[in-house]
């Protein structure tokens, strides 16, 4: 188990090291600064809006320039994250930085969902205000129309009552005019206030849309990079698994051959050991025989020396072998002469 963990750790470190080398080559080719790094930190919606309000005026840039700048920041962010992850895995053997980064993206997604919900609620509120505005405008227009109808009727009556009608008509005209002007002024004031509210809401919506787009772009780009890394790791895992399986099969075959060879050598060793033991037993028996023969020779030598001594002391003469029967007479004559 420890071997597999160390092997996985070594594979991860090699892949991270290779990615860092490729990013360093890319930065060197494009002449990018080593200090240009993007740090992804968690920020609430209010902090993001305050950051957008306090931003200086950004000079207009082409789409290619913006894409290149985003790509450069993404490369710097990836390089920084991989370097920190590499240092953490090499030093501690943990994945805390990747876990923290995943937590940041999860919190950003949750706040994005909440932001979309609040945006939807504000859109509904805007629609309700808009409908209320048109309803009130229709009511006032209807009132003005009714007033104009009343004025027409009064004008018809004024024709019959010319003398009184002049004073009343002037009075009524001025009164109706002042009332209509007052209504128009009130309507314009309300319309202006509602328009200001709408403009403020639109600006807020634009800022929220901008923040949403930036978060969505960061999430999409990070998701694409992670998908690529996952595919590459899956392919690497499959290829490494296949090569390791082949190595394991070869090692098993080598172990089986070695076991067979070891068995043969043990059989040969047993045979040779039996032969050596038999030879040692035979050598011990030969040594016993040699010692026994030596003892016999020594005893025979003592007996022979004693016998010779006896022959000398008794005067029997030298020891001689018996002659054959043919020479028996000669021996007897010699004895007589002596």
Q: Please, could you describe this protein's structure?
A:
- The structure is a single chain.
- The chain has 338 residues and is mainly α.
- Helices cover 88% and strands 0% of the residues.
- The protein contains six helices and no strands.
- The protein has helices spanning 2-30, 45-54, 63-91, 96-160, 162-314, 328-337.
- Helix 1 packs antiparallel against helix 3 and helix 4 packs antiparallel against helix 5 (162-314).
- The radius of gyration is 60 Å and the shape is rod-shaped.
Would you spell out the secondary-structure blueprint of this structure?
Blueprint lengths: L1 H29 L14 H10 L8 H29 L4 H65 L1 H153 L13 H10 L1
Helix pairs in contact: 1-3, 4-5
Search tags:
338 residues, single chain, mainly alpha
Please provide the count of β strands: 0
Order of helices and strands: HHHHHH
Give the uncertain stretches in residue-range form.
Answer: 38-42, 52-58
Q: What kind of sheet is the major sheet?
A: none
Average pLDDT level: 78
* Bulk shape: rod-shaped
Spatial extent as radius of gyration: 60 Å
Distance between the termini: 110 Å
The percentage of residues in β strands lies in: under 5%
Number of helical segments with 4 or more residues: 6
The secondary-structure class comes to mainly alpha
Q: Level of helix content?
A: over 70%
């Amino acid at each position: 188990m420890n071997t597999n963990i160390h092997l996985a750790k070594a594979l991860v470190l090699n892949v991270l090291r290779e990615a860092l080398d490729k990013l360093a080559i890319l930065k060197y080719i494009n002449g990018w600064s080593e200090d240009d790094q993007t740090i992804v930190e968690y920020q609430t919606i209010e902090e993001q809006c305050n950051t957008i309000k306090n931003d200086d005026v950004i000079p207009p840039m082409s789409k290619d320039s913006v894409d290149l700048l985003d790509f450069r920041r993404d490369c710097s962010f990836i390089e920084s994250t991989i370097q920190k992850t590499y240092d953490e895995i090499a030093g501690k053997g943990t994945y805390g930085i990747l876990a923290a980064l995943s937590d940041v993206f999860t919190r950003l997604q949750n706040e994005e969902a909440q932001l979309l919900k609040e945006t939807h609620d504000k859109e509904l509120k805007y629609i309700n205000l808009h409908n209320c505005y048109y309803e009130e405008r229709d009511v006032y227009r209807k009132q003005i129309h009714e007033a104009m109808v009343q004025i027409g009727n009064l004008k018809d009556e004024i024709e019959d009552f010319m003398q009184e009608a002049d004073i009343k008509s002037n009075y009524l005209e001025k009164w109706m005019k002042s009332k209509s002007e007052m209504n128009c002024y009130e309507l314009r004031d309300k319309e202006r206030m509602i328009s200001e509210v709408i403009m403020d809401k639109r600006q807020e919506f634009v800022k929220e849309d901008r923040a949403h787009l930036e978060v969505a772009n960061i999430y999409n780009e990070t998701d694409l990079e992670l998908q690529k890394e996952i595919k590459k790791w899956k392919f690497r895992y499959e290829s490494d698994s296949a090569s390791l399986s082949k190595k394991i099969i070869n090692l098993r075959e080598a172990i089986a051959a070695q076991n067979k060879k070891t068995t043969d050598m043990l059989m040969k060793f047993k045979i040779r050991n039996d032969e050596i033991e038999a030879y040692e037993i035979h050598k011990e028996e030969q040594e016993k025989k040699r010692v026994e023969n030596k003892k016999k020779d020594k005893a025979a030598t003592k007996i022979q020396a004693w016998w010779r001594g006896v022959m000398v002391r008794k005067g029997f003469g030298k020891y001689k072998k018996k002659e054959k029967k043919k020479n028996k007479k000669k021996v007897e004559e010699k004895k007589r002469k002596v």
